[in-house]
Write a structure and sequence with these properties.
homodimer; alpha+beta; 60s Ribosomal Protein L30, Chain: A; Phosphoribosyl-aminoimidazole Synthetase, Chain A, domain 2; four-stranded mixed sheet; globular; nucleotide-binding (chains A, B)
């Protein structure tokens, strides 16, 4: 990705919408499923199985990311990754992204170009064949990226949250808790606002760097979503708000209790329980023979008073609620 | 729509995300094409023709609407209508909407409920069978509604902007210029900001009221998109930025010139030429026998130096460019 010279990097308010769109579209490559790509009133994307999986998730400056911490590339990567994870969690393969971008007028053109690069790099790494197929560009004082991801099930049945049954194995694929640790490092060591302390990777240990990377550019196991569906997963979702909260949602949807083994949650089990944003895949399977990439972390049992048990004890609703947890004034 | 008593209308910052979502979802009804609706990681929507039309368009407080002028119902209606129009402009029938909502914490719950009502009322009126199939809720200081609309072509070929050929008829369906007149009335007679003059329909003539309604709750001819496709439209788009600008885009995409007849543009031809936001459908047809609802406004001719001619004279690029035309400071 060649970077733009500062002398050739106008603010978005000083260039036309057409110039910005041309700059973004010049970085777009066709998705495998694209029949009609960006540039018309709408895109046309193949849906060979006769139905389309569709999901939308938004990143807003403040609660979801900070420009002091995230580059344009990071932001594009993360906006793609979190949406690809929701498609994968249904058992589908991502086929295309639509990107609604609302940008402040004083943002630089290079930022938007890097954002487009980040979107495509995430698709290439996590969901090859998927790419940006359409979008929209508007002005806003708050930088906002709303992505819609589409996917195809390739003939398998969609895996919802409500299919878990007592006696089944609870399993995960992907990281749990690393992105939350990264957020802790960012909040603890750096600062935006009036007296900023910018992110400096040089002052971090390699483990801290990995955690910060997981927060800024998560790597959910997108390809394992369809693998789980083919292997007979009965319920699946991505862990975006922490295992405790999300396992509780699956338990409620399935009218079961999910009993987690602390010993199976790695060396930081409490962090895994509370930390979202890695977008691991949580799934239930009818037998102990799990597909590659998944590891057992518990059992589905008949519904008890509590949706989630942790070594047999009830676990409270830990996790992320943007209305409860984010305070712009303290941001 | 029963309205909420002020004593039972909390600010969004004082209630949980779950409460807000439940309140919105209780107003949701299934779209005809819904296989899996809201509540899981993603929705699953039928795509019987084996491909899905997809488009996204965002309304941002400031450049796209003002809370002083638009109710929650108006905003929901408009967010649906502008996206349904993009699906119709491909010749497709809308099958579902995904709604990414970013809301300030001091907004009232009733506003979001009315927004959900407006989304569904627009679907019922403009695209029966279509409804909200999924969404996302986040916090932002700037109220932002990003909608993605999906559609199915029902076996016909998608109609793009690039298929117009010399000798064909240029036609439109729907209003042109009325919404722009409404914006003029709003800017001229009312004011938000520090010394607001709230919208008062009683001081308006019936024609002014119709224009304001067209601006706040546009009524694009969604059902005529598939009608045009079946009738053999060679190119189509919705007029969102004014006929002059949008006809120029179609002319450029098709490498032709579009020659418009001033006399065919109604009693306010210049307003029709410059005014967008009615989301009329602009289409070209190979013969003079137009489908019901379309009226001829010109001819496609071989490419000249100018993309658009107006009674034989070149027409400049009139119309709406958010980067050029909107100034937050003056808003």
């Amino acid at each position: 990705m060649p970077s733009r010279a500062a002398s050739d990097d106008p603010r978005l308010g000083d260039v036309s919408e057409g110039t910005i769109l041309r700059s973004i579209l010049s970085r777009t490559k066709p998705a495998t499923a694209t029949i009609i790509g960006p540039g018309d009133d709408a895109a046309l994307i193949a849906a060979p199985s006769g139905a389309v999986v569709a999901t939308t998730d938004t990143l807003v400056h403040g609660p979801d990311f900070r420009l002091a911490w995230s580059s344009g590339f990071d932001l594009g990567w993360k906006a793609a990754a979190v949406n690809l994870a929701d498609v994968a969690a249904m058992g589908a393969t991502p086929t295309g992204l639509l990107v609604a971008l609302a940008v402040p007028r004083d943002l630089r053109l290079s930022f938007v170009e890097q954002l487009a690069d980040g979107l495509h790099a995430a698709c290439d790494a996590l969901a090859p064949g998927c790419a940006v197929v359409g979008g929209d560009l508007t002005v806003s004082d708050v930088l906002t990226v709303a992505v819609t991801a589409l996917g195809d099930l390739g003939g398998v049945r969609a895996v919802t949250r409500s299919g878990a049954r007592a006696g089944e194995v609870v399993a995960v694929a992907g990281e749990m808790g690393l992105a939350a640790q990264g957020l802790g490092v960012l909040f603890g060591r750096f600062r935006d606002g009036e007296t900023p302390i910018p992110v400096d990777a040089a002052v971090l240990t390699s483990q801290e760097r990995a955690a910060v990377d997981a927060q800024l550019r998560p790597v959910p196991p997108i390809g394992l979503g369809p693998v789980a569906a083919v292997a007979g997963a009965t319920a699946m979702m991505d862990v975006s708000d922490g295992l405790a909260l999300d396992a509780g949602r699956m338990a409620d949807a399935s009218d079961v209790t999910i009993s987690l083994d602390r010993a199976a949650l790695g060396i930081h089990p409490d962090r895994a329980l509370a930390g979202g944003e890695d977008h691991a895949l949580l799934a239930t399977f009818p037998s102990d023979s799990l597909p590659p990439g998944f590891r057992a972390i518990g059992r589905v049992i008949a519904r008890t008073e509590h949706p989630v048990l942790y070594d047999g004890e009830p676990v409270g609703p830990l996790g992320w609620d943007p209305y409860r947890d984010w305070d712009a004034a303290a941001g």
